[in-house]
Specification:
This protein has about 220 residues and is mostly helical. The protein is built from 10 helices and no strands. α5 runs antiparallel to α6. The structure holds protoporphyrin IX containing FE (HEM). Protoporphyrin IX containing FE binds next to α2, α3, α5, α6 and α7.
């Protein structure tokens, strides 16, 4: 299975599927927030329009640049592109984490406290993971850098896993899942995304020569 995802097209298609629903939601928000034409279920976010807009914009940039960072063929052939999209990824990730914490501080909770605590922890974890990814690259520790970038993406895009679990339920039942059980499912889906990230990191750490080759090709 891992060999399948080493090829650029399956990897990009998988990551695009993972990213698509949150990014599309964020794109719709970016159009609706300035005009005030958002749906009733999002109206509670209007108390924090700056954080909401910043969060949606950062989510789009994070969701698009994340998959680009993982395509080895692009990393090898277009090192400058990798560095530029990497900077956008880190900056948007920082804005995403900070705006998430700001939303949590300002907005009336719509779900149980379990989800708010989890979101707060995920927001903080994203900021820590990005900081450690940057620290690792400063020390030219490429293996640690790759591991923390994968962790950043897995934590930040946990919403992708939530969407892939919740949307089929919505399509089948015609209703968005609500209540405590759905909140547990929400957090569990997000944690699943982090767990998948850890599995990928373990798998890659068992095959370090490929990264060593990449570093050699980039003259590092
Ligand atoms: C660590 C990562 C993240 C955390 C902690 C987080 C946290 C939050 C919080 C607390 C809210 C307000 C929820 C509410 O009260 O309704 C929110 C809303 C939102 N988030 Fe995130 N988020 C994260 C990642 C993302 C990503 C990656 C995207 C997009 C690609 C995204 C897109 C959105 C959008 C579009 C909304 C507004 C939803 C609506 O219009 O009802 N978030 N997020």
């Amino acid at each position: 299975m891992f060999r399948f995802f080493r090829r650029p097209i399956p990897l990009v298609l998988f990551l695009a599927l993972f990213t698509a629903i949150p990014v599309l939601t964020a794109l719709i928000d970016v159009v609706q927030i300035p005009s005030g034409a958002y749906p009733a279920e999002s109206a509670h976010l209007a108390v924090a329009p700056v954080s909401w807009l910043a969060h949606a914009l950062a989510g789009i940039a994070f969701g698009i640049t994340g998959p680009v960072q993982f395509v080895r063929a692009l990393r090898n052939r277009f090192g400058t592109l990798h560095r530029v999209t990497g900077m956008v990824f880190v900056l948007s990730g920082v804005i995403l984490g900070l705006s998430a914490l700001s939303l949590l501080a300002q907005v009336t909770p719509q779900r149980t406290v379990l989800v708010d605590i989890a979101r707060g922890l995920f927001g903080l974890a994203l900021l820590v993971a990005l900081t450690l990814a940057m620290a690792a690259i400063r020390n030219r520790d490429f293996l640690r850098h790759r591991a923390w970038v994968i962790r950043s993406y897995a934590v930040g895009m946990g919403l992708g896993a939530v969407s892939l679990v919740f949307y089929p339920i919505y399509i089948v039942t015609g209703q968005a899942p609500t209540g405590f059980a759905s909140d547990i499912l929400f957090v569990a889906s997000w944690v699943l995304s982090i767990a998948i990230g850890e599995v990928v990191i373990r798998h890659l750490s068992r095959s370090p020569p490929s990264l060593a080759n990449e570093n050699r090709q980039r003259g590092q």
